Amino acid sequence: MKKEKKDEKNIELIKNISKKSIVKEKILKKANVREKEFENYKKKCFSYSIIFSLFVLMFSWLYLYDIILSFGIMFFVFTIIFLIGINLPFIKHKKYTKKIESETAGFLTNLIIELKVGKDLLSAIKKCSLEKENIAKEYGVVLNLVENGLSFREALLLMNKKFNSLNIKRTNSNLYNIYQHGNDVFGLKKFADELLLRQRIESKEFGGKLVVYALVFIAVSAIVPAMFASFILIGSYFMQIQFSALQIFFILVILFPIIDLCVLISINSKTPIFLRR
Residue 175 and residue 114: Cα distance in Å, rounded? Predict the structure, then answer.
């Protein structure tokens, strides 16, 4: 009987080791695929930048009749487009990480409720991972890795590596402590309260700044165009300032709306991510 039990344990151990190795191989393959995809993406960015900058060269040379200046403009446009294109995935990932961080407090609050009901940690995470938030989906990925053979610690470390966020690392550290030492949620609740308090402070700070942002937007969208129209009227009578109809149309219909849009984008970038829709 003892020998049979030992054999069964050895078989289970071999299965777990093989499962882990298969999962690790899959993770490494995904990492290699991502590296290759990024290399291909860089090549695409380079080719698109070249094509667009050649169009800029053609139009600027036709308009300016200065080949040196046209090449200078082409090189400047190529550099800007290539740098924006190459950094776009990192900007998106950083934005997604901030979104995950903003959802952490709500996710932990729901998790604490599930743990207080008496569920074990993995069951509680499984229940909370069914929500629509991005962080719920990420913890669903963690559970999927655990079910496929990785330990809970290894799955959390992969999540830490993916986001490289202090708040995510602290969250996962608290979760691993609960996993090891039982459902003592005091440390987790304290951390969740700290995150909620930080969000309240950010909301109050933004509320104070929003008055200034609103005044700037009103000035740019209403006062400045009205003053410009008055300036054209008065300037044409007394100061002999001449604007063509096309120039006035371009300034009022294209330039000012672009400035308004830039101000709105700036305000949106200053808005805490948990307040955005």
Answer: 13
> What is the rounded CA–CA span in Å between residue 108 and residue 186?
12
Q: By the 8 A CB rule, do 242 and 273 touch? A: no
pLDDT in tens, 16-57: 544 555 555 555 545 444 666 767 777 888 888 888 888 888
Please tell me which residue, 10 or 45, carries the higher pLDDT value.
45
CA 97 to the chain's CA centroid: 5
Q: Which amino acid is at 249?
A: F
Nearest CA to 98 among 156, 174, 165? 165
**Which H/E stretch holds residue 124?**
helix 121-128
* Residue 271 pLDDT exceeds 80: yes
How far is residue 49's CA from residue 4's CA, in Å, rounded to a whole number?
67
Tell me the C-alpha distance between 230 and 220, whole Å.
15
Instruction: HSE, CB side, 13 Å, CA atoms: give it for residue 7.
Output: 4
Average pLDDT on 158-178 reads 90
Q: Output the CA–CA distances (angstroms, integers) from residue 180 to 105, 119, 136, in the order listed.
A: 22, 15, 22
What confidence tens digit (pLDDT) does each residue in 61-80 have? 777 777 788 888 888 888 88
Position 188 scores a pLDDT of 87
How far is Cα 28 from Cα 250, in angstroms, rounded to an integer? 54
Contact 74, 54 (CB under 8 A): yes
Could you give the CA distance from residue 38 to residue 21 in angstroms, rounded to a whole number?
26
Q: Is 192 or 246 the better-scoring residue by pLDDT?
A: 192
Cβ pair 272, 206 in contact under 8 A: yes
The rounded distance, in Å, linking the Cα atoms of 159 and 142 is: 7
Per domain, the residue ranges of the chain are: 2-184, 200-275
